[in-house]
Write a structure and sequence with these properties.
By secondary structure, the protein is of the alpha+beta class. The chain has two domains: about 25-110, Immunoglobulins (Immunoglobulin-like), CATH 2.60.40.10; about 115-200. It has five helices and eight strands. The chain has a four-stranded mixed beta sheet, covered by helices on one side. It is globular.
Length: about 200
């Protein structure tokens, strides 16, 4: 049997070690900007709703770099101060465990962790779909009847491809933070059968 004093010290060390493990950051977001011109500026990691001074994290940019660390997993947005938001695209990120690497620029991006990789892929796919659809709609305004049929068929094909991409994305991310956030945006693109299939994953 341990003497009382050593036993007390062992318990104290165990509690201290446990506390240190609890305080260890779960997520790390390391970011870069295109130049040192913005050194000294503050950059913000904000919740998407109900943002307050208490819930917004902020760090100063140094050597074109910044780092956020924290504990809780949720969907957040990285943004510059208001006057710089026309230069730097706001970036949605999931504060999931691990190291997320981000680039803040006119087109911002994230990589490194599973959900942020998936979210980035979805954003790129959505941007491609929107661009393709816009171009087709513009061409349809002045197209001949024969060309209209061809363009409409192409538009329908890309719409079906995007629908399948969205379904596969939700199938893989149904129960995570990125999937729960995007589902209201993705749902209108899915068929009733696809929506029912996803709800069976609950």
């Amino acid at each position: 049997m341990f003497p009382v004093k050593p036993l007390f010290l062992i318990i104290l060390l165990f509690i201290t070690a446990s506390a240190c493990q609890t305080d260890k950051p779960v997520y790390t977001i390391q970011g870069t900007l295109p130049s040192s011109e913005y050194d000294g500026e503050w950059i913000y990691l904000a919740p998407l709703v109900n943002a307050t001074t208490e819930t917004i994290d902020s760090v100063k940019i140094e050597n074109s770099q910044f780092t956020f660390e924290g504990m809780n997993e949720e969907m957040r947005v990285i943004r510059m101060r208001m006057m710089l938001r026309h230069k730097f695209q706001e970036l949605l990120v999931v504060t999931e465990p691990g190291l997320t690497t981000v680039i803040i620029d006119s087109v911002s991006s994230a990589s490194g962790t599973p959900q942020n990789e998936a979210l980035q892929l979805w954003k790129e796919e959505k941007a491609g779909y929107d661009s393709y659809s816009y171009q087709h709609f513009q061409k349809l305004k002045t197209a001949t009847p024969a060309d209209s049929a061809f363009l409409s068929a192409g538009l329908e094909a890309i719409k079906n491809d995007f629908q399948l991409f969205n379904f596969n994305f939700m199938n893989e991310n149904w129960n995570n933070t990125a999937g729960r956030f995007l589902y209201p945006l993705i749902k209108p693109t899915l068929s009733v059968e696809q929506q029912e299939a996803l709800h069976e994953l609950d």
